[in-house]
Amino acid sequence: MKGVRHYPGFTAIALGCLLVLYAPMIVVGIYSFNGSTSLTTWGGFSLRWYADVFTGEEAERFGMATWNSLTIAFMAATVSTVIATAAAVAMVRGGRFRGKAGTFALINLPLMVPEIVIAVATLIFFSTIGLETGYLTVLIAHVTFCIPFAYLPISARLQGIEGTYEQAARDLYASRWQAFSLILLPLMAPGIVSGYLLAFIISLDDFIITNFVKGAGMETLPTAIFGSVKQGLKPNIMAISTMLLVVSILFVTLSYLINRRGQKTLVQQGDRA
Amino acid sequence: MAARRPGERSLLVPLLLPTWAMIGVFMVLPVGVMALYSFLTREFRGGVDWTFSLSAYDQFFFDRGLFGDEAPRLQWAYISIFWRSIWQAVIATVLCLLVGFPTAWFIATRPARSRGVWLFLITVPYWVNLLIRTVSLRFLLRDTGPLNQGLMSLGLVDAPLPVVNTNLAVQLGLFYSYLPFMVLPIYAAVERYNFALSEAAADLYASRWTTLREIVLPLVKPGIVAGCLLVFVPSLGAFLAPDLLGGAKTFMIGSLIDEQIKGSQGNWPFGAAVAVILMTLVLIALVAYARSVTRERSA
Amino acid sequence: MKRLLGAVALSALASAAQAQEELKVYIFFEYIPQELVEKFEAETGIDVTVDTFDSNEAMLAALKAGRLGEYDVAVPGDYMVEILRNQGLADTFTPEELPNFGNIDPQWIDVPFDPGRTSSIPYQWGLTAFAVNRDVYQGPIDSLSIIFDPPEELSGRINVLDSQGEVLALASMYLGIPQCTQDRDQLRALNDMLQEARQHWASFGSDTSKEVLVSGDAAAGMIYNGFATKARDEGANIEYAFPKEGSVIWMDNVVLLRDAPNRDNALRFMNFLLDPENAGAVTSYAAYQAGVLGAEEFTDPAIRDSPENNPPESVNLGDFVMACDETTQATYDAIWTNLKQ
């Protein structure tokens, strides 16, 4: 039984794959605790660069950028999750209808078009309609490209819920709204939470589109990091990166665990993408 | 699917309207405006004149010499930028496939319980900021970085391996950025593979590798094609890896567009035209993919 | 003086009527110290709004897209001042309108982009040439050949600014041909020389030009002099060069914009910036040089006395990057694309 499944070398490659994926992040994580000002010499374990993030000369800039990133991610994830939930209900429970394939393509469009194309198109569009680039334009762009990321887990979850629940509720004279809010919504909850968290992370991490539509002066965390990194990779950047890394991993783990409760792993949604 | 009651259909439009509106107005329409922009006349020193012109595409495809007065020949400058970007993306895709397939196979042959954990481990890096991952990779690979210092202190090499600012660094960066995209779809395909087929082949004295080539690969091909596409498309327009790892020595599609839109040249119609050409290439790849999937299914 | 009194009286009246005097400034981000803005507000009672841009071209695009008439002054680079003037986006003033006009360093009055200073005043200026890591190369560095025809030790380890204007201007100086030349043989020579030179280059980067020298990724690199000071501060053993062929001089300037809604306030602000103490405060913050007589006294000594900011007396400072006409610019664009294709 094991024989046909086993290929020599595949195990080594899989382990090597993990090593390649994690090595750079681990190295940066380790060096963020370096007590030395120099990047390459080890000066003992220290938390000074973490303190520097909050008190150093760039603290104000990064504080502002973090605030922008978090508020934008919060709003973009919220709005896109609501939109995606409505769309998922229509797409999964709506049966066959005209324009379904088109709508499906539309939802997935942000995943298909290269980011740089979306970035240029969005910038040209805002400039043409005379909307000044800044916080608002970043928010609009984020809501738009977050929709498919919120949609995928939600629709995957919904596909796993049989229609009989709502039907039973309706047979018992529940109104349409009651059947949705009392029966379907709680069942969908893990998918919705998962979609929300993924949208949040996607918004928090976006660089290319944000960099095009943000205008001068306004920064999000990734654009602020990019600006700093170009001036030199300093230990405080490694500390910020490590913190962002931990936040990302926390969110994804949370999303994974919540979703697994409903027997749907992240990955099964991933392969529908 | 549950039988629908009359009237349920009326909800479709209000439920889908926000999606149509958001993506329609802020993605489809902008792409349309961008396409329109690529046919406008560039004003000297930024800005556009709203008169129709093919000059952006003319600049892309025709070379009229250094002084613009020679007979037009095919323009190699931009084609070679595209060609180089495509080539980098192809190499990154092949690297991803060579590593991603065995990894996906390995995961799919684990006991069901540990598969989830493995997949989780493969997915996590994707959710970590791409910028941070690229910067980390540069830090690891640079001449004075931990990898080279480690190799030198072990006496394996005398001088630092020159990796940063080379094409190899860009390919490694792309490989590293998009590897999970390759593993996931292949895993999904391998997971559905019926291993009884391999056993049957083994019973008929097929070697492991013959089985892989003749039986497994054709069956998991849709997963492989999907994975290749998911790596190839974002690699093509990648911006961070060439800029941070490749030293920006030569234009890639991403940096060429960036320079036209945000740089000193301020040539928006040309930047828009390059973006339109890139999008056209991607659409062709997607349509080819969709066709191959339909053919597989009908076969 | 009478005029000024008149202006002050007028603006006092206006402020009584309008309740709040305003000024809108358009400037590179992180380029003016907040304390200085507050000082101006306290001295004059004018409420200042500072908007920022991240490139000269972005500023031009915004003004052309209808933002003209919203801002009173903008602070663009040298060649952009010429473009603003040529496109009729700048207003003019007379020296009498600025009591501190006489504080402008005479060498920056008759500048090619605004001869006689009728629309702009100096804000900060500096030089762009290159710096060399002295651990790697100990030979003479008084020529641009270090970048364009480098010695063996430096070949393959050079970073070049990712900026068409500066690279082509320095390359022209190296070849001894005028900028924006229309002579085809000279332009071909420029193209050929750069094609040869690029083989010696490791990377292109402007924002990264300091980092590559500090980290050792590059052993020599084109760099702005103020940036070289910072690289040295961060521990790089580099020496900034003043090549004999000349450097690129750059200067950011405060420009009085056309249709400025608060023209008088704009002039008061420009006059304020020409005060040596205030010019010194800007310099201490931005770390370049002021172009205002007497500002040195009020400048942070570490910035004022750095070797990068004090070229030898006899050296050829070089030239500003010129704004070429459309045909020549098209050729320049083609040469740049060839370089990076």
Automatic annotation (TrEMBL), chain A:
Function: Required for the activity of the bacterial periplasmic transport system of putrescine and spermidine.
Its membrane topology: Multi-pass membrane protein
Record-level GO cellular component terms: plasma membrane
Localization annotation: Cell inner membrane; Cell membrane
Entries under InterPro entries matching the protein: Bact_Polyamine_Transport, MetI-like, MetI-like_sf
Record carries keyword Mitochondrion: no
Keywords, in A-Z order: Cell inner membrane, Cell membrane, Membrane, Transmembrane, Transmembrane helix, Transport
Keyword Transmembrane: yes
Primary location: membrane
Residues that span the membrane, as ranges: 12-33, 70-92, 104-129, 135-158, 179-202, 237-258
ABC transmembrane type-1 domain location: 66-255
PANTHER family named among the record's database cross-references: PUTRESCINE TRANSPORT SYSTEM PERMEASE PROTEIN POTI (PTHR43848), SPERMIDINE_PUTRESCINE TRANSPORT SYSTEM PERMEASE PROTEIN POTC (PTHR43848:SF5)
Gene3D superfamilies in UniProt: MetI-like
GO biological process: transmembrane transport
Family: Belongs to the binding-protein-dependent transport system permease family. CysTW subfamily.
Protein name per Swiss-Prot or TrEMBL: Spermidine/putrescine transport system permease protein PotC
SUPFAM superfamilies cross-referenced by the UniProt entry: MetI-like
UniProtKB/TrEMBL annotation, chain B:
Domain ABC transmembrane type-1: residue ranges: 82-289
Record Gene3D superfamilies: MetI-like
Subcellular location: Cell membrane
SUPFAM superfamilies attached to this UniProt entry: MetI-like
Entry's transmembrane regions: 12-40, 86-107, 119-141, 168-190, 223-241, 268-290
CC terms in the record's Gene Ontology section: plasma membrane
PANTHER family the record matches: INNER MEMBRANE ABC TRANSPORTER PERMEASE PROTEIN YDCU-RELATED (PTHR42929:SF1), INNER MEMBRANE ABC TRANSPORTER PERMEASE PROTEIN YDCU-RELATED-RELATED (PTHR42929)
Designated name of the protein: ABC transporter permease
Organism: Rubellimicrobium roseum
The organism's taxonomic lineage, starting at the top: Bacteria, Pseudomonadati, Pseudomonadota, Alphaproteobacteria, Rhodobacterales
UniProtKB/TrEMBL annotation, chain C:
One GO BP annotation of this record: polyamine transport
Cellular location(s): Periplasm
Keyword list, A-Z: Periplasm, Signal, Transport
Ligand binding (spermidine): E30, Y79
SUPFAM superfamilies (UniProt xref): Periplasmic binding protein-like II (SSF53850)
Molecular function GO labels: polyamine binding
Annotated Gene Ontology cellular component terms: periplasmic space
InterPro entries: SBP, Sperm_putr-bd
Record's signal peptide: 1-19
Major place of residence: periplasm
PANTHER family: NORSPERMIDINE SENSOR (PTHR30222:SF12), SPERMIDINE/PUTRESCINE-BINDING PERIPLASMIC PROTEIN (PTHR30222)
Role: Required for the activity of the bacterial periplasmic transport system of putrescine.
Family that this chain belongs to: Belongs to the bacterial solute-binding protein PotD/PotF family.
Protein name: Putrescine-binding periplasmic protein
Annotated organism of origin: Rubellimicrobium roseum
Taxonomic placement: Bacteria, Pseudomonadati, Pseudomonadota, Alphaproteobacteria, Rhodobacterales
